[in-house]
Amino acid sequence: AQSVAQPEDQVNVAEGNPLTVKCTYSVSGNPYLFWYVQYPNRGLQFLLKYITGDNLVKGSYGFEAEFNKSQTSFHLKKPSALVSDSALYFCAVRGPSGNTPLVFGKGTRLSVIA
Amino acid sequence: DGGITQSPKYLFRKEGQNVTLSCEQNLNHDAMYWYRQDPGQGLRLIYYSQIVNDFQKGDIAEGYSVSREKKESFPLTVTSAQKNPTAFYLCASSDEGGRGRETQYFGPGTRLLVL
After folding, report:
1. Chains A, B: CB contacts under 8 A, how many?
2. How many angstroms separate the Cα of B54 from the Cα of each of B40, B47, B50?
3. CB within 8 Å of B84: residues ≥ 6 apart
4. Nearest neighbour of B104 by CB, restricted to A41, A97, A102
C-alpha cells in the first residue's frame, strides 16, 4: 500500500528565510511524487512533480523539491519565503503501476511571518 | 482551478435529505475523482472513475454514490446514510494514460454544511 507522511502539522518561517516542508513516502517500486498548495476555501493547486531523472525538481512560484530515494523523502523547498507563501501544503504519491488515484499526506500549514 | 467547475460553492443539507454535488470538466480527461477534506485529516478518497460508465470505491465510500454517464461530468450524491457529511468536497480529474505520471487537477470545492 502507498502512503505519505508529512511529519509537521505547522511550519513557521520568517520572510526572506529559506523554507522546507518535509515529506516521506512508502511505495513499492519507483514512486511518482507530487506537491500541491491550498489557499483558504480553494481547491488544490499543482506545484511540481517528480517522475524520473534529475532528483531536483523545479516548480511554480520559485518552489523546488528534492527526491531522495535512500531516505524515501521528497521535501519541498524555497530559498526565500514570502508572506504570500502562507498556505496549506500537501504531498502526494502514486506507485509505478499507474491508473490509481494519488494518496495524500495530511498537509502542513506554512506560516511566513513578516 | 483550470477547467474544472464545482457547484454549488456552499450547500446546506437537512437531516434525512440526499444532496448532489456537481463536478464538470472541459479538459477531456478520462479519470475523475472525489475527495473529502476535514481539518487535520488531509484528503480522503471517496470514489473515482477511470472511464465513462465505470467507477470504483475509495477509502470512505459509505454513504455516498456517484455516476459517470458522460466523460465531462462526475456528480456525487451525499445520501442520508452519511451521518457526518459536513466537510469540504473536492473534485479532480486527470488524463490517465495508464502510466501513472499524469497530474491530477482540482476544482474549487464545495463546502457542505448540515442544518
Report:
1. 64
2. 31, 11, 7
3. none
4. A102
Predicted confidence band at A100 (pLDDT cuts at 50, 70, 90)? Answer: confident
3-state secondary structure chain A: CCEEECCCCEEEEECCCCEEECCEEECCCCCEEEEEEECCCCCEEEEEEECCCCCEEECHHHCEEEEECCCCEEEEEECCCCHHHCEEEEEEEECCCCCCCCEECCCEEEEEEC
Structure letter (DSSP) for residue B2? T
How many angstroms separate the CA of residue B20 from the nearest CA in chain A?
A: 19
The reply to whether residue B111 touches residue A41, judged by beta carbons under 8 angstroms, is yes
Residue A92 contacts residue A4 (beta carbons within 8 Å): yes
**CA nearest B49: which of B28, B31, B72, B25?**
B31
Task: Search chain B and give the residue with CA nearest A51.
Answer: B101
The terminus-to-terminus CA distance of chain B in angstroms comes to 28
Work out the minimum CA distance from B65 to partner chain A, whole angstroms: 18
Mean pLDDT for all residues in chain B: 92
Q: How many CB atoms lie within 10 A of CB B51?
A: 12
H-helix or E-strand spanning residue B30: none
What are the pLDDT digits (tens) for B40-83? 888 999 999 999 999 999 999 999 999 999 999 999 999 988 88
List the single residue in B with minimal CA-CA distance to A96.
B100
